[in-house]
């Protein structure tokens, strides 16, 4: 299981020159971290359930300049304006596409839905819009994986304006 999760994590790592650290496995989810030139990147991830494309993964990422980024790869080519939706319970989450990956328009809403539900179903139109891909992801263990990645990459402390000393 750990080997599989590290392979999945490698698919989303932007640079292979930096070592990955597995933070833990949590039922269907894993959490990992690695360093990039801009700083530490932490992510929680899972693979598709069943026999659909093994390259289908769902990832939530904390980066130095962006938190709660939710991305989906379905293992097939997504066209530029593909309609991509993930349904978690009664919540439909809209995604946009860029370079073959789909990204949540509202990462916080996606995370809230993932915490409450057991399964997420992704639907997307494929290249040229001729067919639709459907992928199912287990959300079991998401909360624990998200907590582990957040502990490893806590939010930056807000910057204080002024030091409290008066100016002369």
Write the layout of secondary structure elements.
Elements: H1 2-12, E1 20-26, E2 29-36, E3 39-47, E4 57-63, E5 66-73, E6 84-88, E7 91-98, E8 101-104, H2 107-116, E9 119-125, E10 132-138, H3 142-152
Antiparallel strand pairs: 1-2, 2-3, 3-4, 4-5, 5-8, 6-7, 6-9, 7-8, 9-10
Model description:
The protein is α+β, with helices and mostly antiparallel strands and about 170 residues long. It has a single domain, classed as Immunoglobulin-like. The chain is built from three helices and ten strands, in the order H-E-E-E-E-E-E-E-E-H-E-E-H. A ten-stranded antiparallel sheet has the order 1-2-3-4-5-8-7-6-9-10, with helices on both faces. A hairpin with a 2-residue loop joins strand 1 and strand 2. The longest helix has 11 residues, at about 1-10. The chain starts with a helix and ends in a 16-residue tail after the last helix.
Describe, in short, the structure shown.
The protein has helices at 2-12, 107-116, 142-152; strands spanning 20-26, 29-36, 39-47, 57-63, 66-73, 84-88, 91-98, 101-104, 119-125, 132-138.
Labels describing this entry:
168 residues, Immunoglobulin-like, alpha+beta, globular, 42% strand, disordered N terminus, 3 helices, 10-stranded antiparallel sheet
